[in-house]
Amino acid sequence: MDRLFEDFIRPPLNFPFGRSSFDIEPFWKRSMSGYGIPAVDIAEKDKSFEITVELPGMEEKDIQIRLANGNLSISGEKKDEKEETRKDYHLSERHYGSFERIFSLPKGVDVDHIEANFTKGVLAISLPKRPEAVKPEKVIPVKSR
Asked: The pTM is what?
């Protein structure tokens, strides 16, 4: 319970893909881990941000990526039906699951050149930085006293 209140009173961190003070995803993620929320890795490179989402068993046609109001939404759903009839029994199973992850885009992302690829259950999204957002490397000279 203390953790829940800490999430509400903690000031928002100034990270790329940071959360707004009204974002309740950390609460749901903590209480539902292992129940349909895909693992996500986010990395900042020199010229882009890279998002990797693990979606085992899903197909490309079941995944949607949307961009609206500075937010990147990744969602999908999976349906599976199995029916088996034998001499002494009938088995009918249905499984359904859906997810949605929403990320606030950091400043400087070139939204017109975002690319997504899906291979072997892994979704890779590349969010290139606009040229003015790419900071050149700076060498700091070391001086002796």
From this structure: 0.65
